[in-house]
Amino acid sequence: MAPTDEQIRLAIAQQAAEWFVAQRTRSLDDAGQTAFAAWLKTSPVHVDEYLRMAAISSELRATAQDPQLPVAVWVAEATAGTGELLELAAGQQLTSRQRRNGRR
Amino acid sequence: MSQASKSLVEKLFTEHYASLLGFFGRRVRTRSEAADLAQEVYLRMLRVSDPEAIRNPEGYLFTVANNLAKEHAVLERRTTSAVDIDDAAADLSLQTLPAYERELDGMKRTSRLHTVLAQLTPKCRTAVVLQYAQGLSYREIAVRLNVSPNMVKKYLAQALMHCRRRMSRLG
After folding, report:
1. Residue B28 DSSP one-character state
2. ipTM (interface predicted TM)
3. Along chain B (171 residues), what's the average pLDDT of each consecutive run of 10 residues?
4. A79: chain B residues, CB-CB within 8 Å
5. In this structure, how many other beta carbons lie within 10 angstroms of the beta carbon of residue B138?
6. Which residues of B fall within a CB distance of 8 Å from A39?
7. Pair A20, A53: CB distance under 8 Å
8. Contact map slice: A 26-85 vs B, CB within 8 A
9. What are the C-alpha distances in Å from B13 to residues B32, B57, B98, B152?
10. Residues A10, B143: Cα–Cα separation, whole Å
């Protein structure tokens, strides 16, 4: 079955997201920049999707800076595994939850 | 846009990239924001069809950069008060924003984006927050999350793509 227009759009959007991240993390060497320019020139849809990523990125920045977001909780959740390892490495007492997990 | 003027834009951009970064660097809070804006100048230059602009390309490059810096200041002013803003920027109308941003505006973007952020996986969401709110580099984020730098890039692209999908579903 041929892909729909929407599927093609989203496939280009996926590429745009990857290029956008590569650009903003400065991950591209000269060859990468040339490949990016070639990708961008493929069609106006490519340019449009790339610009959408730029717009989404600036919206995300504005949203992520909202003081009402439970940022500290999110960071703690996502880094919990690392924190536990660091605690263990430092020889600190295990929390009761970790002790339970350890016994299993 | 013709090939000739496109390569002119590329040449201009390459020559002036450092000064563009410096220009934006004095006006925004993080280096990655400055890089985003410099990138956006390039894309706007590519869309130029006005031959007037090409007669004084360097002048035009910095006119585009200046306009973008003002738009950025207006956006920042709307979202946070912690930035030092050029007074002139306050007068600038939001009319100058590209059409797709106005389109987003009409969709109550901020509250929607809160919801969207909450839908991401914890590591993906945290990569976004550490990058945008705390200005960490992707390498620093990788250390914090205990994943590879490439994984951080995947998370960031995933977050953009998730927002993009939501846009198309509702838009």
Report:
1. S
2. 0.75
3. 65 74 76 79 70 58 74 65 35 38 49 77 91 90 94 96 78 40
4. 126, 144-146
5. 22
6. none
7. yes
8. 26-27, 37, 40-41, 47-66, 69, 71, 74-75, 77-79, 81-82, 85
9. 17, 10, 21, 28
10. 31
